[in-house]
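User: Teach me something about this protein's shape.
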Amino acid sequence: MENTKVRRPFGFYVCSLAFTFERFAFYSAKWLLTVFVVASIADGGLGLTPADGAKMSANLIAFTYLAPLIGSVISDRFVGARYLAPVGMVLMGVGYLIGANATSAAMINLMIVIVSIGTGLFKPQTNAITGRLFKNKDQLDSAFSTQYSFVNVGSFIGTTIIGVITHVQGYSFSFTICGIMMFVGAVWFIFGWRFLGEAGKKPFKYDENEVGVEKVEEKKEEKKPLTTIEKKRVAAIVLVSFFSVIFWVFWYLAYMPVYFYWGADGGAAPNANWMIGNFEVPTIWFDSLNALICITLGPILGKLWTKLAARPQGDLSMFKKTALGMITLGISYVIFAAADILRGENLAHLAWIVAFGIVLSLGEMLFSPLGNSFISKFSPPRLLSTMMAVWTFAVFIAGKSYGWVYEFTLKFEFVHVYSVIAAIAIVAGVILWAMDKNLKGLVVEDEKATE
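Assistant: First, the predicted structure itself:
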């Protein structure tokens, strides 16, 4: 039997491993920043409140989603993406070194700014280069799925190692490790230029696929008004983006009580027992658990969707999958609330935190594939960049909001507030499931609607 497996270009692994370095540093630094800000001065921290730590963490998340919109404009119009990516990695490395020497909230805020700018120069450019390495576009879904595995591997290795290093060497040394990883990643990417072919040498406006007759025709097409089906698809994207805000606010929020309520990173006594024998499990290993579950579930869910697609009725729609993701997120918060009720006056068993993390990660795997693939398939071509910006802005809003939401939750009893969050997520998921038929009607091709 002939082997039809297609080898991927080595440049693909250059980009993918660069993401491994970057995610190693980013997810480690996200936890480091959050707990460093709250740790007492005697323990090497800044001695601020958990609410302050949550809001600074939220700023890091939010602005690393916003900055790529600006970085994309630079690579589209002015500078080749391959040259911006290592510059971005170096800037991120500098930002983490600022964190290593931080003695005030102002220095942490400066770190956030520098890391965000660096992310804006690295992330969209590296993704765009990956997309241009494949002549056969049918290979892209598989390629980006594999690259997502590199992302999770970087996150898993980074958060697992940094948890131990921080316990032994402290916050400053751990931030320094993150910075070094970015400098190594930049050197790796520059070494890999030779394997990228022509991808990213010039600004993307000079891409050979966008010049000549096709570009002229595209400009003429842009003058036409949106068709009825295109207007419906824009409405569907905006509507689903609203559900995205709800999901990601609660998803990012989940980490804060793990660190500060169940764990002892906030300085107060923990409400869960993190000891396994004589070893205290670092709270950052909750982040490691998320990466491990994503790595494990990816192939399993892929096979499940393939099996469902073979049924006469076909696979679940993307809207039903997204609704299941929202409902699963709500169920994870039910576990949170149940743990607090059932522990009574005792410490909750670590198994509760693990169960919460597994269900939370399952919700992410069900929900997160919606984004880019949904918009790429259904956005009107002339509005693709705008619709991508809408989706990214939705995640920015969620990232920016969860710190303030966490500060608000601190005014109430734990079990009450997280029971309410569970209810909101589950109800939102049920509504999204109920809207499946209408949403599919908005995006399914309808020849009559385009007349």
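Now, about its shape. Residues 225-446 form a domain with the Growth Hormone; Chain: A; fold (CATH 1.20.1250.20). Residues 208-221, 446-451 have pLDDT under 50 and may be disordered. If you'd like, I can walk through any region in more detail.
User: That's plenty for now, thanks!
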